[in-house]
Design a protein that fits this description.
- By secondary structure, this protein is α/β, with parallel strands linked by helices.
- The chain has one domain: TIM Barrel.
- It is built from 11 helices and 13 strands.
- The protein has a 6-stranded parallel β-sheet with strand order 5-6-9-10-11-12, with helices on one face. Strands 1-13 form a two-stranded antiparallel sheet.
- α2 runs parallel beside α10 and α8 crosses α9.
- The longest helix has 15 residues.
- The protein is globular, with a radius of gyration of 18 Å.
- The two termini are 25 Å apart.
């Protein structure tokens, strides 16, 4: 999702590349009346989490809790057009057919390419589709991610996203990061102005801590937070707890972590073998059971992996499996 920021500027390892073709981050949609294609009508979770497989952003946007990401539908290095443009369009359209109704993207993905592909594949958008995009990171070149959360830039970025996505209003517009050169109050203040102008429905944050969320909420209502979080990396546990307390959606980017080269006795491997699924599906199922505000947004450029990822919404871990996986944090 937004791991490129930390890989480039915060010293975190590029672990996502280890499973580039399997689970990635950002983009999708809902065909009205067909959310049961994958998600079904009955609970797929253990008693560890709320049985509801949907979440309401704000007071008016109900989404299925397993979304889809559109960062990697772009070219190599999240730069330019994908090598197989038609395949990227097919992946987005198939996500719609599978009942996903939360799409996450950003103007920095491509840059601009991801948003353009989403509009090309899905516009006119079906009822119930929630497009979440982001602004606040610029792309001077391949591999470069430079924060720019100045109010004037954010306003320009929003206008660009509206044009590329062919929308008059963005359902969920997220501040992509916190710019060390700009107080977060100024950044979200600009988004509030655009919200008051009718160009943003709801506002979210990304790559923040609880104190920054609290500061932003003094300026404008916040409905979601997007931070790095998975079985292997739970540094944002305090942010997740904050979101649970305040009923904010929590979108984990890099949601399935690594996962390759696990030993047969590893809890992920054991659960995957028991259910005849991949370790990535088990990781997604664990996230969904971890918290009722958790909104995983895995993505992929592969149709087969897309179907595998979305099918994880129906995977039910046993209490023993869930506890064994949860204990990995220790």
């Amino acid at each position: 999702m937004t791991d490129e920021l930390f890989q480039a500027g915060h010293g975190r390892s590029v672990t996502r590349r280890r499973f580039l073709g399997i689970s990635l981050a950002s983009g999708a949609a809902l065909v009205a009346g067909k959310s049961d294609v994958i998600f079904g009508a009955e609970s797929t979770t253990t008693s560890r989490m709320a049985t509801n497989m949907t979440f309401k952003l704000g007071d008016d946007l109900t989404v299925n809790r397993l979304g889809f990401g559109a960062m990697r539908i772009t070219g190599e290095g999240i730069w330019g057009w994908p090598p197989d443009r038609e395949n990227a369009l097919k992946v987005l359209r198939r996500a719609v057919e599978l009942g996903v109704n939360l799409i996450d993207t950003a103007d920095a993905y491509g840059p601009e390419t991801s948003e353009l592909l989403i509009a090309e594949a899905l516009h006119p958008y079906p009822n119930g589709l929630v497009i979440a995009t982001k602004g606040g990171l610029t792309r001077p070149g391949p591999g470069d991610w430079v924060p720019n959360c100045r109010p004037e830039h954010l306003k320009q970025a929003l206008e660009g996203s509206l044009k590329r996505l062919r929308l008059e209003r963005i359902d969920l517009y997220q501040l992509h990061t916190v710019d060390s050169k700009v107080p977060i109050e100024e950044s979200v203040g600009a988004l509030k102005q655009m919200q008051d102008a009718g160009k943003i429905r709801h506002i979210g944050l990304s790559n923040v801590d609880p104190e920054e969320i609290a500061r932003a909420r003094k300026i404008v209502p916040i409905v979601s937070v997007q931070n790095r979080y998975n079985i292997e990396d739970r540094k944002s546990e305090n942010v997740l707890a904050y979101c649970e307390k305040e009923n904010l959606g929590f979108l984990p980017w890099f949601p399935v972590g690594g996962g390759r080269g696990l030993k047969p006795e590893h809890p992920l491997s054991l659960a995957a073998k028991a259910h005849s699924v991949s370790v990535y599906q088990v990781a997604l199922a664990w996230l969904l059971e971890r918290s009722p505000v958790m909104l995983p947004i895995p993505g992929t450029s592969s149709l087969a992996h897309l179907e595998e990822n979305v099918a994880a919404a129906k995977l039910k871990l046993t209490p023993e499996e869930w506890k064994a996986i949860d204990a990995l944090a220790a």
